[in-house]
């Protein structure tokens, strides 16, 4: 019998940071091989090159849930900061340790194990494996054709929620803010125009004046400068400077874009990413049928649900999976084994209760 803990540990041992197509493909192939081994008639489709995706369907045709799972992780960072090998998949009795254990190879392992067990009892379901979720759900955007004709009762994104069912999150609008100047020798700065100073002076007041909105469900929008780069050498007045901006949105991002476009000291504004907020009615029959309590608060992070709701607006989406959200992206990331096992049982229950 397949063990979700062993499977999750195996997946953690496969490094798959965002943009590493080979690593993400290796995770997807491992999952496909496991499913094929236990359910020989599994129906498997795969595509994508730099952003691979895999869709696996088990059991009879007809209405069934789909588990949407990304296969990339954030980078490890500085190895010396970790207490153990971040790709060791170490199990210490109560937790699985390593990068991706919580976000989201544990949720993936629970979904795959539940699908195999449910298929053995005559039920069916689907799992969609995506790439590059961590850098903007870029892989999910390639899967529209694959899931267009599936007869779905609902979509479950098994991100870490502590096994509470969540139905919403804010969108994300990332912008690149560019200031232009004029280069000159560092010994004669008066002959140039310093782009770093122009941009730095603009950012604080612009952030304070940003027209951030509030939503009763999603909360208040936020804006944060993530990176700042400028100049080529210490002795050259910088001719260009760039900052990146992370905005978490509750509505159309156009007013925010226009705000930054009008700021004196910012000459160009480029959109890096623009994901819509996710909203699912907590009273939808599929959501009410899930065997866990619904928490009306939105999750703080974005998910592939942003893209999937655009591809399948007819299907309710739940964010529901094992793990403590504060462990996501953290050094010494770890997943509680009891939650992983419970998630597997709950997911199997959902698959067996299909109409």
Please provide a written account of the structure.
The structure is a single chain. With 355 residues, the protein is of the alpha+beta class. It has two domains: 4-169 and 277-352, Zn peptidases (Aminopeptidase, 3-Layer(aba) Sandwich), CATH 3.40.630; 171-274, Alpha-Beta Plaits (2-Layer Sandwich). It has helices at 4-12, 21-38, 101-119, 144-147, 195-209, 254-261, 285-289, 305-311, 337-352; strands at residues 43-47, 53-58, 64-70, 95-97, 125-130, 152-157, 168-169, 171-180, 214-215, 219-220, 222-230, 240-249, 268-275, 278-279, 317-319, 334-336. It has a six-stranded mixed β-sheet, with helices on both faces. A four-stranded antiparallel β-sheet has the order 11-12-8-13. It has a two-stranded antiparallel sheet with strand order 4-16. A hairpin with a 5-residue loop joins strand 1 (43-47) and strand 2 (53-58). Helix 1 (4-12) packs across helix 3 (101-119).
Quick synopsis:
This protein is α+β, with helices and mostly antiparallel strands and 355 residues long.
List the topology elements.
Layout: H1 4-12, H2 21-38, E1 43-47, E2 53-58, E3 64-70, E4 95-97, H3 101-119, E5 125-130, H4 144-147, E6 152-157, E7 168-169, E8 171-180, H5 195-209, E9 214-215, E10 219-220, E11 222-230, E12 240-249, H6 254-261, E13 268-275, E14 278-279, H7 285-289, H8 305-311, E15 317-319, E16 334-336, H9 337-352
Parallel strand pairs: 3-5, 3-6, 6-15
Antiparallel strand pairs: 1-2, 2-5, 4-16, 7-14, 8-12, 8-13, 9-10, 11-12
Helix pairs in contact: 1-3, 3-9
């Amino acid at each position: 019998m397949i063990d979700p803990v062993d499977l999750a540990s195996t997946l953690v041992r496969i490094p798959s940071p965002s943009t590493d197509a080979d690593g993400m493909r290796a995770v997807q192939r491992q999952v496909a091989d496991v499913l094929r081994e236990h359910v020989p008639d599994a129906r498997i489709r795969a595509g994508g090159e730099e952003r691979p995706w895999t869709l696996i369907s088990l059991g009879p045709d007809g209405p069934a849930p789909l588990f949407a799972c990304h296969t990339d992780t954030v980078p490890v960072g500085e190895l010396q900061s970790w207490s153990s090998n971040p790709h060791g998949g170490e199990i210490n009795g109560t937790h699985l340790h390593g990068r991706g254990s919580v976000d989201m190879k544990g949720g993936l392992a629970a979904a795959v194990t539940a699908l195999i067990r449910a298929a053995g009892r005559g039920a069916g379901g689907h799992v969609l494996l995506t790439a590059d979720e961590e850098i903007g759900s870029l892989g999910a955007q390639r899967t529209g054709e694959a899931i267009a004709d599936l007869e779905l009762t609902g979509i479950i994104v098994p991100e870490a929620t502590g096994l509470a069912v969540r139905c919403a999150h804010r969108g994300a609008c990332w912008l690149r803010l560019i200031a232009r100047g004029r280069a000159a020798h560092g010994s004669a700065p008066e002959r140039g125009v310093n782009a770093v100073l122009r941009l730095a002076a603009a950012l604080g007041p612009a952030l304070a004046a940003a027209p951030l909105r509030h939503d009763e469900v999603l909360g208040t929008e936020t804006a944060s400068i993530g990176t700042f780069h400028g100049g080529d050498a210490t002795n050259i007045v910088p001719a260009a400077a760039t900052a990146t901006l992370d905005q978490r949105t509750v509505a159309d991002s156009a007013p925010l874009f226009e705000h930054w476009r009008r700021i004196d000291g910012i000459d160009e504004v480029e959109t890096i990413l623009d994901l819509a907020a996710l909203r699912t009615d907590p009273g939808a029959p599929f959501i009410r049928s899930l065997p866990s309590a619904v928490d009306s608060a939105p999750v703080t992070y974005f998910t592939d649900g942003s893209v999937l709701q655009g591809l399948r607006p007819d299907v309710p989406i739940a964010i529901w999976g094992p793990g403590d959200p504060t462990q996501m992206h953290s050094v010494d990331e770890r997943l509680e084994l009891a939650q992983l096992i419970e998630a597997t049982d709950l997911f199997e229950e959902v698959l067996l209760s299909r109409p």
